[in-house]
Amino acid sequence: MPDPSPHDELDPTAPPVFAEVEVVDVVDGQEPDDDIAWSLETGFHDETGTVRVWTDVDGNPERVQLARYWRDQVQRVPLEAMFADVFMQINILLGSDAASPPDPRLPPSDELLSRELVAECNSRMAELAERLKQLDETGEGYPVVEGQGCEGSAEDGRVRLRLTVAGTLDSVAFDPKWLKDASTAVVCRAVIEAHRDARGGFVPPVIRAGERAHITDELFSISRRIEQAAARGIAGVRQASPEEVAAVMAEENR
User: Fold this and answer.
1) What's the rounded Cα separation, in Å, for the pair 37 and 215?
2) Nearest-angstrom CA–CA distance, 172 and 12
3) Strands, DSSP E only, in 92-191?
4) 175 partner at 20 to 30 Å CA-CA among 60, 82, 139, 156?
5) GO molecular function of the protein, one example (predicted)?
6) Cβ neighbours of residue 149 under 8 Å, at least 6 residues apart?
7) Can you give the pLDDT at residue 21?
């Protein structure tokens, strides 16, 4: 699909226009109940309660609902802006791609904690810390993400939804002429269909770890090495047998 024109009203990559937009008040009787603890069952809503989206655990929209007063609200704030509010919440709670620290599989060892081991590890960690400092000064070593976002459409292109390079929700755009006459059910269904279309063309990005990631992994491995050595005992100190430990515990419990 060709790149959207800079003047395309349906360009989902363009940020919502908030210029000269009035502050929207919640319609009486429709206030979102912020006292209810959030869960997937409650979904996500914009600050006025006009747009609500339910997703799966990965942040993929499964159901969309518009309040009965939504046509009044879009006269003051674009529907795209209200969806942008909801999408941001979804991405914050469910769209994080942050990875947990690796659990290094250290080779089998009977290594005990010793001054020599601590000195060796401290020396290596100092070298790695110095290298990180150099990377900070040059701005290098960050991971490289190779990929691009994608777009899906519904209602013959009158609704267009864009995903980020990570596959999370980016934005949605509506043809204003179509939106004027479209029913609430059709609008809600079109958002889901456009997202489904976008997911069908999404290609996961290739993330190439930079030097910083390798340094962080090694630092974590060094810490694990020290922890495991300490758990085995201290070099030069005789370790109590399980029987001796049990006897001491029994004596303390008398």
Assistant:
1) 40
2) 5
3) 144-146, 150-154, 159-163, 169-174
4) 60
5) DNA binding
6) 13, 162, 163, 164, 165, 170
7) 43
For 54, the token pair is 């339910």
**3 Ramachandran zone, left/alpha/beta (phi>0; psi -120 to 50):** beta
Per-residue pLDDT tens for 158-216?
Answer: 999 999 999 999 999 999 999 999 999 999 999 999 999 999 999 999 888 899 999 99
The model carries a pTM of 0.62
Length reported for the chain: 254
- Contacts of 163 by beta carbon, 8 Å cutoff, 6+ apart: 149, 150, 151, 152, 169, 170, 195, 198, 199, 202
Phi first, then psi: give them for residue 123, nearest 5 degrees: -65, -45
**Which of 77-86, 115-124, 140-149, 243-252 has the weakest average pLDDT?**
243-252
Instruction: Name, in order, each residue with C-beta under 8 angstroms of 208's C-beta and a sequence gap of 6 or more.
Output: 143, 144, 145, 146
Structure tokens that stand for 160 in this block: 């267009």
Cα(181)–Cα(248) distance, integer angstroms: 82
CA angle 188, 88, 48 (to 5 degrees): 60
- Quick one: which H or E segment has residue 242? helix 242-252
